[in-house]
Design goal:
416 residues, alpha/beta, Aspartate Aminotransferase, domain 1, Aspartate Aminotransferase, domain 2, 2 domains, seven-stranded mixed sheet
Amino acid sequence: MSGSNAVQAGQIPGAATSKGKSQDAVMGTYGRQDVVFARGEGSWVYTTSGDKYLDFGSGVAVNALGHAHPRLIAALTAQAQSLWHTSNLYRVAGQETLAGRLTELTFADRVFFCNSGAEACEGAIKIARRYQFVAGHPERWRIITFRGAFHGRTLATLAAGGNEKYLEGFGHAADGFDLVAFGDLDAVAAAIGDETAAIMVEPIQGEGGARLAPPEFLAGLRELCDQHGLLLVLDEVQTGIGRTGKLFAYEWVGITPDVMAIAKGLGGGFPVGAVLATAEAAKGMTPGTHGSTFGGNPLAMSVANEVVAIVTEPGFLDEVNARALRLKQGLARIKDTHPDLVEDLRGAGLLTGLKLKPNVQPADVVKAASAENLLLVGAGDNTVRVLPPLNVTDADLADGVERLSRALTRVAKTIT
């Protein structure tokens, strides 16, 4: 590896401190792989020692357009040379442009900008509760959510997901969430009570194992909300911005939500999130009810506007669907080749997963893939996610499938 972006092994800035290695100073909340990446290009990332990896994790579905996309670099660089941050005490031109685009492209009339998926989900929860409050139903504040869901790492979003592993050690879970089985419409109907304000659901449970919500289930949730005066809140943090082959996954079903949280791919790698809502759902969000210091700053808006412009160009999503079909065919061959390891294929578009047999651990597959210089992402329900960039080339797609097959061959040799 050469050029000004190259970082040689042993020359990482701040590699050691007087107290020891700098990596020891980072709080140990992640089980990190022992690799440091110095740069990326397209679907590839390069380590400090010059090794290259095919990135089929996309930063957990964040790098929707791969690494170092020239148009995103140009947008961010131009904005960085003029204005970084002013706060939301003043109008932000980029917010108005992006909000206008998003409302033209979706069900929404109003958009609130934040910094992450968790913040977007928190904002969606607040909108739903506030809506019922101003509608004269302050008793309606509980939200029906689903087992296996992941809405973020804040205390409220952890409670909404209900994963005991993530809640352990943080005291009593935040109240106000009623968890039911994913896909069970009867259970949802039974859970609706006088205090119910909304139903919150992911069209595909990404962290939960790439589990796809059946179209009839989502349509049924819309009907239940209409019948009972509830808001339908979609968490499209992972499924949005073209990941499933539509701009948003709800479009496949032919329904519209009242509120939607988005993030990840929206910034193409730059941290940004948003909450979209109808004018009716957002009527309680008046000055002082919500806010964010950094949310929607000029830097974030410059990149997000360019991402949306690219993803909505004519033919772009058609190409995503064509790539998704090729990936599905490749994963189906892998399933046939490794029937003792792979139980099922999951997901939609380029949000796909391999549901593994009970005797196979996702961490082992991720590790074996890394040995093949392929990056994957683990998930719940004994699943490994395969999340290539939306603009992955056909050659890289085929390469990734072959590397994954070789990784599973490695795993098979370790199973007795």
